[in-house]
Design brief:
With 196 residues, the chain is an alpha+beta fold. The chain has 4 helices and 4 strands. It has helices at 19-22, 30-45, 60-67, 98-195; strands spanning 10-17, 56-58, 77-85, 88-93. β3 and β4 (88-93) form a beta hairpin.
């Protein structure tokens, strides 16, 4: 088997002249042309044989440096550090100005703050969901306990009602018997009165 040799990474520092490129286009396209000029310069000087501008990855700090004064007035030249690994070429800013360092720190702080608030919100949501689940479980347990108690109460009521029905049935039978007896007596008294 043949061993595949890996290309070593190449690092170089360039001062890229931009003015001669962005003067060729109208004012409202200058920053875009400056970015394109950086890509073309890097592809040419790093000997990328495919000459594909898509292989060049420009760091955010370089992009900010070009766009910081707006689209109409990009810087005249820029110092960058270029690293090449295989076909991929990375362009970084050399000696990042304090202005951009401060902005990066502010951005990092904002991002950290946003992450913290998101984490806190997520924790609060989880706690609320957990509390809701616990409350639902308690309600279910209470309902189950209530249903058991209600079943017992219903059974007791049914038993009491049965006992009352039996008692009322007995009382009604006795009253009927008494009525029959009283009617017989009345009939006898009435007959006696009639006979006299």
């Amino acid at each position: 088997m043949a061993k595949v040799k890996e290309e070593p990474s190449i690092e170089r520092v360039y001062v890229i002249p931009l003015r001669q490129e962005w003067l060729k286009v109208p004012k409202y396209k200058r920053a875009k042309k400056a970015i394109k000029a950086i890509r073309e310069f890097v592809v040419k000087h790093m000997k990328s044989y495919e000459r594909e501008l898509d292989n060049v990855k420009i760091n955010d700090s370089v992009n900010k440096a070009i766009w910081c004064r707006g689209i109409k007035s990009p810087p005249h030249k820029i110092t960058v550090k270029v690293t090449k690994k295989g076909e991929e070429i990375m362009v970084d800013f050399v000696n990042l100005p304090k202005k951009f360092k401060r902005e990066d720190e502010k951005l990092r702080k904002k991002i950290e703050k946003a992450r913290r608030t998101e984490a806190e919100k997520a924790k609060k949501r989880e706690e609320e969901e957990r509390k809701k689940k616990e409350a639902e479980e308690k309600k279910k347990a209470e309902e189950a306990a209530k249903t058991e108690e209600e079943k017992k109460k219903d059974e007791e009521k049914k038993e009491k009602e049965k006992a009352l029905h039996k008692e009322t049935d007995i009382a009604q039978k006795q009253e009927k018997q008494l009525l029959k007896l009283s009617k017989k007596k009345d009939v006898k008294i009435h007959r006696m009165a009639m006979q006299k």
